[in-house]
Every structure is written in C-alpha cells, then in structure tokens.
Write a structure and sequence with these properties.
single chain, 315 residues, alpha+beta, Jelly Rolls, Arc Repressor Mutant, subunit A, 3 domains, 6-stranded antiparallel sheet, 5-stranded antiparallel sheet, 11 strands, 20% strand
C-alpha cells in the first residue's frame, strides 16, 4: 500500500476498523468491549515510506495485541491515557509522554478508551537502525520505551511530528508524493526522535576534538547553498550528530545549522553591500534561504538594519 493521507472512512463494523488499522499501521488482534462504536472510529495516516504517522481513535473501548512485526511504534497520546504491557513490564502514557513499542515483541493494550486519541509513528526497523548508526556513530543504540516529551528537545520533536501530520492533513499530502521529500521528512522525524529520546553518552564530551568542527566548517564554507542536514554534517565530521553539536557548542558557541545560517547571512550581506545578485529576495534565495520572513529578522539582528536598507545604500 502506498498512500499519503487516508481520510477516516465511516466504518460499518469492527472488522472494517481492524482491517484499516492493520493496513495503515500494524497487524494486530482487536478485542472490542462493545458492539456499537465502530462507526465513530477514525484512522488517518501519512505514509513516508520508511515511516508512517497515524492518528487513531476508537468509538468504543477495545483491547489491542500486536507484536509490531518489522517496525517500532511510538504512540503519543494527544488525549486520554494509553496503558500497555510490553513483555513483563507495564507502562502508562498520557499527554506529554510517549510509549515506544519495540519491533517483534509481544505487546498488550488492554483498554483503549474512546477518549484516547493517539498520534503514532511507525518506523521500519532497518531505517531506525541505519539512522541511529548515523546519528550516534555506534550500533548499540536503544530507543527508550518511556519517552518524556516535556523536555525542551522532546517538546520540540513532538511539535515537529504533529506539524508534519497537520500539514499533510491540511494540504492533502501533496508535497509528500515526491519520494525525496518523503525520505527527507522521514529522516528528520527519526533523527529528531533519537536526539530527543536517547540519553547522552557519559563519555561523549571527553571524546570531542576540534578537527571534526574544522572539517564541517570548511564543507559549509565551500558549499553554503547546499541543503545540509545534521546527518550530512556528522558524516563529514566522522562523529555522531550529538557529538558534533557538542563540539560546535564547545569550540564555536553555537550549533552546526546555526553556524550555517550565519554563514549564509554573511554571504548575503556581502552581495547586498556590493549590489550584486538583484533584489533582496533573489539574493537570499540564491544563498539557500527558504523562510524570507525569518530571514529579515535574523539579518537585522546580525547587521543592525534590514536587508533592503543595505541594498538601498549600494544603489
């Protein structure tokens, strides 16, 4: 199945709900606690190939059993409580927390009530392992089962996931039809989740050296218009994404992407001062700026004037 956004159909019975959820999210066994309620259930999914975002509600209380074959499920309650048992351990998640269900592991959700609305992220195991190796430069990374989304990083990632889903719902998933866009968004979601959820390595700070920072700075200066991602820069540095971020903060007092943004602002400023490249918008776009409203504010903060004022002086 390949779909970008499946609007919630009106279900005739629980068998239809079961089949839709199995196709859109995970194979499972469903145990409705009441006969009515199927028609009030809703399933919407954004398909990013190696990842899927799904919004799930049920019109009556149901029990769910699943081994989550071949993929991890990160279930985030938007309302209500999600009680679950994974192996021999019990978990309870409410808004502000998420439960990560490991792949190929029996899990039981005894009472998914009608007031429980879940935003779920399905990540193929191979994709999660590949991204975790790229982010942390090691193979033994494990996603915690209980994820706190109230931390600054956790809250930022949750907003990212919810915005991705809402954008697809609002525009019909038009951009995600492009495989490159879908792959990029999937990588962004998984990398962000790993950075937000996986604890810091105790010895990471001692392992930092300035050489990775120099390599990354040189690469950005050589090609500042390239749409660099944290993973791209970490591969150039030869360290994990987290270690690279720590190295930049230690040696430059900023993050890699913030440094890249400042580099682009400097190049734009130089062009505007010398009247090169056309209008402010044309110059900004030529250096890789995509959010023009934010650009103007950042430019003013860095140079003390609007970009239009700089260009006007060069005329």
């Amino acid at each position: 199945m390949r779909h970008l956004l499946q609007s919630a159909p009106r279900f005739e019975d629980w068998e239809g709900v079961h089949d839709a959820l199995s196709n859109a999210y995970f194979p499972h066994a469903m145990h409705p606690k009441a006969v009515p309620g199927a028609s009030a259930s809703g399933i919407e999914v954004v398909d990013l190939d190696s990842c899927r975002l799904a919004r799930i509600t049920f019109g009556a209380t149901v029990g769910i059993d699943s081994d989550h074959p071949g993929a991890v499920a990160v279930n985030i309650p938007l309302s209500g409580h999600l009680a679950s048992r994974i192996g021999s351990k019990n978990y309870d998640a409410a808004p502000g927390r998420a439960t990560a269900f490991p792949a190929d592991t029996p899990a039981h959700m005894p009472a998914w009530a009608p007031d429980l609305v879940v935003l779920g992220l399905r990540i193929d195991s191979a994709h999660l392992h590949r991204e975790s190796e790229r982010v942390f430069a090691r193979k033994d990374v494990r996603l915690p089962t209980d994820i706190d989304l109230r931390t600054p990083a956790g809250a930022a990632w949750f907003r990212m996931a919810r915005t991705t889903f809402d954008n697809a719902r609002d525009c019909g998933g038009v951009l995600y039809r492009d495989p490159q866009v879908a792959d990029s968004v999937a990588s962004m979601l998984v990398t962000g989740l790993l950075l937000a959820a996986v604890p810091d390595e105790p010895t990471a700070r001692n392992a930092l050296r300035p050489r990775p920072v120099h390599r990354v700075v040189e690469a950005m200066e050589a090609d500042p218009t390239r749409p660099w991602t944290p993973v791209d820069l970490a591969e150039i540095a030869g360290v994990s994404v987290r270690r690279l971020q720590q190295a930049f903060r230690e040696h430059l007092g900023t993050t890699p992407l913030a440094h890249l943004h400042d580099l682009r602002l400097d190049r734009i400023h130089d062009d505007l001062v010398h009247g090169r490249g056309g209008t402010v918008t044309e110059v900004a776009l030529s250096w890789g700026i995509t959010h023009l409203g934010r650009f103007a504010a950042a430019y003013r903060e860095r140079f003390g004037e609007l970009p239009s004022q700089t260009l006007a002086r060069a005329a």
